Each structure stands twice: as structure tokens, then as C-alpha cells.
Putative membrane protein (Nocardia tenerifensis), 171 residues
Amino acid sequence: MLSKSVRGGALLFPGLLAGAFGYGAVNVLYAFREVPLDVRFTFHTALMRVNGPVMQSLMGLAVLSTLLLAVRSKHRRRWIAASASGLVIASFVVTRWGNVPINQQIKTWRVDALPADYTDILRRWELFHFTRTGCALIAFVLVITAVMGSLTADDRHARARIHPSPAPAHP
């Protein structure tokens, strides 16, 4: 049986991660496309500076909470939770070796002296962002699946304790 804190943490941290990345993909990214480049680059740089510690902490907590869920779960739910953890780790890897290096480039850009391939670089950043968002979202769905499966299994065990089935009669 999983404790409420294990279930709660496993739902909370991957959910926040998926929500934060999802908000960025649905709102911030498209807002970036609507503003002048100097505004985009200034805001992008400021956002990444503020987001860095928050998102790293959130990714770490999401990995730990999904690993704990996997360790404390049984059978199929263990593999589902471990897969969620793997996807959270994948979102970190994509961020660290995909988005972060591009963020470092963007910090140095000036609107009057952009690299010739800046649109390709921005497109690559967006592709990495959608990839990490997808990983985080699927991880969250897997956590929901694992937790809901543990709740139904816990309910069956609780009902069996409250209403034990009668012992078969022996002739």
C-alpha cells in the first residue's frame, strides 16, 4: 500500500513540471512569436535566468518522487512509475543538452547582429521544448495511471479485510 505522501508527491511534482512546460509551449512560445525580436530575446534571457533554479529543482523532485513511487509500487505499476521517472530524466537531458546551450547563445545575441541561421536555432529550441514538454506530459499521465491503479488495488485489499469471503465448506 502506498502512503498518501508518496502518491501526493508523485502526482504533484511531475504535474507541476508538465504544467510549467505546457504553459510555456502553449502560451509563452506563441507570445514570443508576436513581439519584436529585441523584446523576445530580453524576455527569453530573463525568463531562463529566473526559471533555471526553479525548473531544475522541480525536475529533481519529479525524478525523486517517481522513483520513490516505483520502489514502493508492485508489479505492473512499478514499471509504469519507473517509465515515468525515465521520461522525467529524458526531459532533463533534453533541457540540459538541447535548450540550455541555445539559451546561452541567445543571451549573447543583439538584434542588429543576429546570426544568419537564427531562425533555425530558434526552431531547434522550440523542437527541444516540445520534446521535453511531451516527455513531462506522458510521465504525468503514467504517474496518474500508476497511482490510480494502486488506489483500486488498495480498495480491493481494504474491502477484503472488511468483508472477508467465507471459507469454502469442506464435506
Q: What stands out?
A: The mean pLDDT is 91. The domain at 4-160 is CATH 1.20.120 (Four Helix Bundle (Hemerythrin (Met), subunit A)). The helical segments are 4-34, 37-72, 75-108, 118-162.
